C-alpha cells in the first residue's frame, strides 16, 4: 500500500475505501490555553461519537485547524486568491465541525466574518456544517453584522447549532429555519477524563525530557514512591528556568512536565492516604481553614473596556493585592498565573514589577494544557477572570469562583448549577469574593452527568445525521462515554515550540501596532502645536 493510500484510505471488508474526513475548526492557534483544552476535548468527543457509530479509528481522519482558516489578508483585501488554502481544506472534507469557539462574535472581534465566509465555501462544495458548543454574542436585529451572520446561517449546509451560552440568541438567529439547536455544556467539562488526573510516568516523550532520565514508573503491584519536597523544588525550579529561556530564545524545546507529574503523584498518594484513613473511621477530621493554596487567575488590562466595564488596570492590581493581603492574614498561600494569553502575561509582569508581588508567587508563562491543568489542580480553590480556568477547575473538581467580565461567565456557572459562583463587576471586592470562594470550598464540586452529557448527545446526533443517517444506534451513556473517550497524547516538543512561537509573534505584532499608534499620536501632537503657534502669530 502506498503512502497516499495509507494516509487517505482504509480497508473495509477487503475493499479499499476513502477515509471519512472531518474538518474541525477551533481556536487551536490561540495562546489562551483554554482554547487548546477545548480542541483536545472536542477531538476526543468526535472520536467517541465515531466509535459509538461503529467506526474504528482507522476509518476516519480529523483535520484540526484554526477557526480563522479565513486569513487576515482576505479580510483586509477581499482578494479571492487568499482563500485558496481554506477552499482546499473545506472542499476535501466530508463534514465540517466548528467546535467551542466564539464564532458569532462581532462586537469587537471579526469571528463573524470568518464564519460567514467559511459557510459560503462549505455551501459551494456541499459540505455539511455542525456548530458544537460555540460561543454566541447577543443577537441584534438592528446590527448589520449580526444580520449578515443570520443570513449566512440560513444556508442549507448548516445542520445543527449548539451553544454553551446565549441560547436565546441562537433561537433568534435560526428562527423559521428548522435547524436543530440546543444549550449544552462546554466540551472542556470532560478535561479531567481527556487529560487524566496524572500523567503516565512511563511516558518519555520529547515534551518531558529534562536532559536526565524520567522516572520509568513503579513496578507493578508496588505503591508509588513519594516524591520528596526537595525533588519537587528542583523540578519546579528547572521549569521556571526553562520558561525564561523559552521567552528569550523562542523556545528550542518544550517546558518539561516533570514538576507537574511529581506534584500529581504526591497528591494522589496523599488522597489515597486520606481515603484509607476515612475508611478506617477517621472521617471526623476538620476541613483545612488555613494553609491552603488559592489560585488567582488574572486577565489583560483592556478586557474590561472592551466589555464596557469601568475597571482600569490599576483597579485590577488593587483588587488582587487586597485579595492577597487578606489571604495571607488568615494563613493561606496564593499563586498568580494566567491561562496563557500574552496580554494577560503583560498584566502579570506589570503587577510584579510595579506592585512588588514576589516573583516566586507567580507562574509567568503558561503555554500548554499540561501546565494550566498542573497549576489549577495544585490549588485548593481558584478565583478566575478567564472562563476556561473556571471550566477546567470544575472538570477537576477544584472549587472556583468566576469574575464576570462577560455574559459567558455566568452562563457557564448557571449551566453546572453554581450560578452564585459567578461574581458581577459591582461585587469585585476582596471581602465579597473571598467569602464566595470560602462558600465554594465548603460546598465542593458536584458534577451532574445528565447536564454534562448534552454536549456529547447533540454532537453524536449531528455526526450520525451525516455519517449514518439511517442508523438506530443510541448515544453512549455517561459510563460508556467515560470509557471510550480517547486520552490526550501529550504536547510534543514541536507542538510546544509552535505554541510559543505564535505567542511571541502576537506579542511582537501588538508591540508594533502600539509603536505605530504612538508615532502617529506624536505626529498629530506636533502638528497641533504648530497650528496653535500659527494661530498665536496671526493674533499678534
TrEMBL record:
Residues 511-538 form a coiled coil. Residues 32-405 form the Polysaccharide pyruvyl transferase domain. Keywords: Coiled coil. The keyword Ribonucleoprotein does not apply. It comes from the Bacteria. Residues 204-248, 262-291 are annotated as: Disordered. Residues 226-240 have a biased composition (Low complexity). InterPro entries: Polysacch_pyruvyl_Trfase. PANTHER family: COLANIC ACID BIOSYNTHESIS PROTEIN WCAK (PTHR36836). This is Polysaccharide pyruvyl transferase domain-containing protein. It comes from Brachybacterium endophyticum.
Amino acid at each position: 500500500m502506498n503512502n497516499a493510500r495509507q494516509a487517505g484510505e482504509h480497508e473495509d471488508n477487503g475493499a479499499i475505501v476513502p477515509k471519512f474526513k472531518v474538518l474541525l475548526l477551533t481556536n487551536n492557534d490561540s495562546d489562551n490555553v483554554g482554547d487548546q483544552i477545548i480542541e483536545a476535548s472536542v477531538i476526543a468527543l468526535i472520536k467517541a461519537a465515531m466509535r459509538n457509530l461503529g467506526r474504528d479509528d482507522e476509518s476516519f481522519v480529523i483535520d484540526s485547524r484554526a477557526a480563522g482558516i479565513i486569513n487576515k489578508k482576505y479580510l483586509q483585501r477581499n482578494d479571492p486568491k487568499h482563500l485558496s488554502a481554506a477552499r482546499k481544506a473545506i472542499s476535501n472534507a466530508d463534514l465540517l465541525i466548528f467546535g467551542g469557539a466564539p464564532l458569532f462574535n462581532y462586537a469587537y472581534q471579526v469571528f463573524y466574518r470568518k464564519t460567514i465566509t467559511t459557510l459560503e465555501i462549505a455551501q459551494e462544495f456541499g459540505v455539511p456544517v455542525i456548530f458544537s458548543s460555540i460561543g454566541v454574542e447577543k443577537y441584534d436585529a438592528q446590527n448589520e453584522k449580526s444580520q449578515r451572520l443570520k443570513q449566512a446561517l440560513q444556508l442549507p449546509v448548516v445542520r445543527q447549532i449548539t451553544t454553551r451560552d446565549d441560547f436565546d440568541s441562537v433561537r433568534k438567529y435560526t428562527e423559521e429555519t428548522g435547524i436543530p439547536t440546543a444549550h449544552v455544556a462546554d466540551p472542556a467539562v470532560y478535561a479531567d477524563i481527556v487529560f487524566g488526573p496524572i500523567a503516565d510516568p512511563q511516558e518519555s516523550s520529547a515534551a518531558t525530557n529534562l536532559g536526565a532520565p524520567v522516572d520509568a514508573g513503579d513496578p507493578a503491584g508496588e505503591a508509588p514512591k513519594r516524591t520528596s519536597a526537595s525533588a519537587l523544588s528542583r523540578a519546579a525550579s528547572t521549569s521556571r528556568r526553562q520558561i525564561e529561556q523559552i521567552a528569550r530564545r523562542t523556545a528550542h524545546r518544550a517546558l518539561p512536565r516533570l514538576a507537574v507529574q511529581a506534584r500529581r503523584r504526591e497528591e494522589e498518594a496523599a488522597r489515597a492516604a486520606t481515603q484509607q484513613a476515612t475508611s478506617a473511621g477517621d472521617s471526623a477530621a476538620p476541613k483545612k481553614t488555613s494553609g491552603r493554596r488559592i489560585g488567582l487567575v488574572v486577565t489583560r488590562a483592556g478586557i474590561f473596556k472592551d466589555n464596557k466595564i469601568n475597571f482600569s488596570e490599576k483597579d485590577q492590581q488593587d483588587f488582587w493585592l487586597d485579595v492577597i493581603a487578606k489571604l495571607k492574614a488568615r494563613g493561606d498561600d496564593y499563586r498568580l498565573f494566567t491561562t496563557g494569553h500574552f496580554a494577560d502575561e503583560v498584566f502579570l509582569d506589570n503587577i510584579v514589577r510595579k506592585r512588588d508581588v514576589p516573583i516566586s508567587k507567580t507562574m509567568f508563562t503558561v503555554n500548554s494544557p499540561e501546565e494550566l491543568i498542573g497549576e489549577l489542580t495544585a490549588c485548593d480553590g481558584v478565583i478566575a477572570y478567564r472562563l476556561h480556568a473556571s471550566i477546567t477547575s470544575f472538570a477537576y473538581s477544584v472549587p472556583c469562583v468566576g469574575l464576570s467580565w462577560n455574559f459567558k461567565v455566568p452562563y457557564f456557572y448557571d449551566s453546572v448549577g453554581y450560578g452564585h459562583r459567578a461574581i458581577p463587576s459591582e461585587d469585585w471586592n476582596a471581602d465579597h469574593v473571598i467569602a464566595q470562594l470560602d462558600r465554594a470550598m465548603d460546598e465542593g464540586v458536584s458534577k451532574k452527568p445528565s447536564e454534562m452529557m448534552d454536549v456529547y448527545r447533540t454532537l453524536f446526533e449531528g455526526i450520525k445525521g451525516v455519517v449514518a443517517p439511517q442508523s438506530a444506534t443510541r448515544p453512549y451513556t455517561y459510563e460508556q462515554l467515560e470509557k471510550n473517550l480517547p486520552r490526550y497524547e501529550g504536547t510534543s516538543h514541536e507542538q510546544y515550540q509552535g505554541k510559543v512561537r505564535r505567542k511571541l509573534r502576537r506579542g511582537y505584532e501588538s508591540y508594533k501596532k502600539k509603536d505605530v499608534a504612538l508615532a502617529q499620536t506624536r505626529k498629530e501632537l506636533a502638528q497641533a502645536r504648530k497650528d496653535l503657534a500659527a494661530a498665536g502669530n496671526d493674533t499678534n
